[in-house]
Design goal:
Growth Hormone, Chain: A; MFS transporter; about 475 residues; mainly alpha; transport; about 0% strand; single chain; globular
Length: about 475
């Protein structure tokens, strides 16, 4: 891809890439809803069944660092099609699995494909749009990220209550087939760079480091939380490996597996930090809110999924309407306002207990969804708009690593808080109330970093998007 695409072609490309991203992000939530059913079907323990999710997570994060190199080596189009094809094969195999070990193994295959889709999509869209249109192009990432968890809960509930568990995985097959067929026709054909050398030492440091951190986070939900050796041991080992990779990446004369130098830029570095911290607020709430509805309010799995829809509606409203009115505002005002709206959205749950008014809770989720769009979408656009055409593949991989480490870590922290409160609480609602207050506090943390974002209104620069104007300010600072 040597130049940005025309608007119409960019729109078609966005739709195709969003479809691929949605099916991989949707799958995580669908399977989480079905874990209890799988435990019953296979007659297994909770610890063993949990590996259906853990195996996918570890494979997912393991391949993210490879996505940038693979895009350059065989071409971004071929890399994306390969990732979707691997995810398709893994989904089909999961759908015919006869034993729990088979299912876990096939979930690993599925994760190897799914982990590459989002960072490759980021790279393709960044290159295709150019810095002036990157905000519009990033809808291909933002919309699936917002809709995936909620739609997954609804679809998972329908499948678990009405169909056979195999359809939890087989439902991906027709979507992936369509994505492959259309992607083959629509994605720009760009030859790979066969001379690209593989960073062997970087791979030996970075991939085990990211996997160790993901594994440590997954183990923190057990007895002892983060104090358990099975949790803090991998976390420490992963941290050391990531530090060694950073030193290697800064000193190597060739191309490292991911480009850590982009974190030194204000837009990318601060944006990545805000994205990492959002794992402790909104992404953590994707665990707590469904449990609250089911444990405290006694809702079914399907009803819980339906009750979570207002959050996606709020996010869609931001993307479809509110975003246009905020385009000329300072980016710091938009992101800061989004953080405040997220805090307001959590407040009804912190105050509700078991008898909270349903309409107030639904309104809170609606406001939470608007806040999610305003606090995350401009940050994503800002971080990626600062990448050059050549930096896009490996820079997108770096951003994805931050995102995929921050999200499960935040979920694990809030899960640990919830479990500790449940162990000592007389009633479940007290435990959830305390956890929601913690979520509210975590939601406020990004406000400490927002002032460090570069900011200027789009109107003052004559450009069409805040991402472009912020990039322009950074380039001249």
């Amino acid at each position: 891809m040597t130049s940005p695409l025309p608007d119409r072609r960019l729109t078609m490309l966005s739709v195709v890439l969003a479809l691929g991203a949605l099916v991989t992000l949707l799958d995580t939530t669908i399977v989480n809803v079905a874990l209890h059913r799988l435990q019953v079907e296979f007659g297994s323990s909770v610890a063993d069944t949990q590996w259906v999710s853990t195996g996918y997570l570890l494979a997912f994060v393991a391949v993210i660092p490879l996505s940038g190199w693979l895009s350059e080596r065989i071409g971004a189009r071929n890399a994306w099609l390969l990732a979707i094809a691997v995810f398709l094969i893994g989904s089909a195999l999961c759908g015919v699995a006869g034993t729990l070990p088979e299912l876990i193994g096939f979930r690993v295959v599925q994760g190897l494909g799914g982990g590459m889709v989002v960072p490759i999509t980021m790279g393709i869209m960044t290159q295709a749009a150019g810095p002036e249109r990157v905000e519009r192009a990033m809808l291909a990432i933002a919309l699936p990220a917002a809709l995936g968890p909620i739609l997954g809960s609804v679809l998972g509930g329908v499948i678990v209550e009405s169909w056979d568990w195999h359809w939890v995985f087989l439902v991906n097959v027709p979507v992936c087939v369509v994505a492959l067929a259309v992607g083959y026709l629509v994605l720009p054909r760009v030859p790979g760079q066969r001379e690209q050398r593989f960073d062997v030492l970087g791979f030996a440091l970075l991939t085990p480091g990211v996997v160790a951190i993901a594994f440590g986070v997954s183990r923190s939900s057990g007895d002892g939380g983060f104090a358990a050796a099975s949790a803090w041991g991998p976390l420490v080992a992963g941290g050391v490996l990531l530090a060694l990779f950073t030193l290697h990446a800064l000193r190597t004369t060739g191309k490292p597996l991911i480009d850590v130098r982009v974190f030194a830029r204000r837009s990318f570095g601060v944006g990545s930090l805000i994205t990492f911290m959002s794992g402790f607020s909104l992404y953590a709430l994707t665990l707590v809110l469904p449990l609250y509805y089911q444990v405290v309010r006694g809702e079914s799995v399907l009803a819980t999924g339906l009750l979570l829809i207002p959050q996606s509606v709020g996010t869609m409203l931001y993307f479809g309407l509110i975003r246009k009115f905020t385009a000329h505002l300072d980016g710091r005002v938009v992101v800061g306002g989004g953080v405040v709206l997220m805090m307001i959205g959590v407040l009804p749950f912190a105050l509700s207990g078991a008898g909270g008014q349903s309409l107030l809770l639904i309104a809170g989720q609606f406001v939470l969804g608007i806040g999610f769009g305003a606090s995350t979408f401009p940050v994503l656009s800002l971080a990626l708009a600062g990448l050059s055409h050549e930096e896009a593949p490996r820079g997108s991989a770096a951003f994805s690593v931050v995102q995929r480490v921050g999200s499960p870590l935040g979920v694990a922290v809030l899960a640990t808080i919830l479990q500790s409160r449940l162990n000592g609480a007389t009633t479940p609602e007290n435990a959830f109330t305390t956890t929601f207050w913690w979520a509210l506090a975590f939601s406020a943390i990004p406000l400490l970093v927002v002032p460090f974002l570069p900011g200027r209104s789009a109107a003052s620069t004559g450009e069409s998007s805040p991402a472009a104007s912020l990039r322009s300010l950074e380039d001249h600072s």
